[in-house]
Design brief:
Layout (H helix, E strand, L loop, with lengths): L4 E11 L8 H16 L22 E12 L5 E2 L22 E6 L2 E2 L9 E3 L12 E4 L16 H10 L37 E4 L2 E4 L19 H11 L11
Parallel strand pairs: 1-2, 1-4, 3-5, 4-7
Antiparallel strand pairs: 6-7, 8-9
Bound molecules: arginine, zinc ion (ZN) and calcium ion.
The site of arginine (ARG) has 13 residues, from strand 6 and helix 2.
Keywords: Disulfide bond, Hydrolase, Metal-binding, Metalloprotease, Protease, Signal, Zinc
GO molecular function, one term: metal ion binding
Protein name: Pregnancy-associated plasma protein-A
């Protein structure tokens, strides 16, 4: 009645060792983190600097509900983000469960980049890929949930960040590595590139000769999990447009 949309979530866990076969409890923790972060009920929301409070999203009115967990053992020790082998049973993975109706999350032991190197925490597809066989998120098992997850990425916020991409949010510095590009949200200050670790506020950075106080505590930056705790109001508008009845991910609506 208040316009909240509930997204059905399917976890596809592909593991080699039993430690990589993350527990149902950890998956439940991750869903709880998503519901807190997207509902603005996260306990650290009180840390938003007062200068940014007028631009905070508040409740994004998108919720997440676990509908299935699929598990598969594999001898593979790494999974290429280019080949997307984790998403097809014919290449050792698990097929998506109707990607038009569900947000699929593949959990793998290691994500390999285009050079075959490990280290990527996660990645996701924008709504332009809605419903395709590879649509959804891929996340390293170390970064799911909280209990047993890998510090400093052990508060479940890698998934919060990747769901942001899935719902049409670029990084704060835009989609190009050059930075200082638009992220299509007028209330997130223009940024030259990622911030890491736990920056202290205020942090000013320059684009086009103009210095701006950076919203590094936004989920769409690269800071540590404990240093990110907000979406902006314009980001909420963009995400709501994606799941609206006329939006590219309308199929997710129950
Ligand atoms: N580097 C990844 C990406 O751009 C995820 C970053 C997640 N950050 C975090 N604090 N968990 O998609
Ligand atoms: Zn990202
Ligand atoms: Ca912006």
């Amino acid at each position: 009645a208040d316009g909240t949309v509930e997204i059905p979530v399917v976890f596809n866990v592909i593991y080699n060792t039993s430690a990589q076969n993350i527990s149902d409890a950890r998956i439940a923790e991750q869903i709880a983190v998503l519901n807190a972060d997207y509902g603005a009920t996260n306990s650290d929301i009180s840390k938003i600097p007062s200068a940014f409070q007028p631009y905070a999203a508040g409740n994004v009115k998108i919720r997440f509900k676990l509908v299935a967990t699929n598990r598969k053992q594999s001898s593979k020790t790494g999974w290429s983000s280019e080949l997307e082998e984790m998403k097809k049973s014919s290449t050792g993975g698990i097929n998506a469960t109707d990607a038009t109706k569900n947000m699929n999350i593949w959990v793998v032991n290691s994500i390999l980049d285009e050079n075959g190197d490990p280290g990527t925490l996660g990645y996701a597809y924008y709504p332009e890929s809605a419903g395709l066989w590879y649509d959804g998120l891929v996340i390293g098992y170390q970064y799911i949930g909280k209990t047993g997850a890998s510090a400093p990425f052990n508060l479940g916020r890698t998934v919060t960040h990747e769901v942001g991409h899935y719902l049409n949010l670029p990084h704060l510095w835009g989609s190009s590595d050059t930075g200082c590009q638009t992220d299509y949200s007028g209330d997130t200050p223009v940024s030259p590139g990622p911030n890491y670790g736990t920056p202290s506020y205020p942090l000013n950075r320059v684009c086009g000769g103009i210095s701006r106080s950076q919203m590094f505590m936004n989920y769409m930056d690269y800071v540590d999990d404990r240093a990110m705790f907000m979406f902006s109001a314009n980001q909420k508008t963009r995400m709501q447009a994606v799941v609206a009845s006329s939006g590219p991910r309308a199929g997710l609506r129950l």
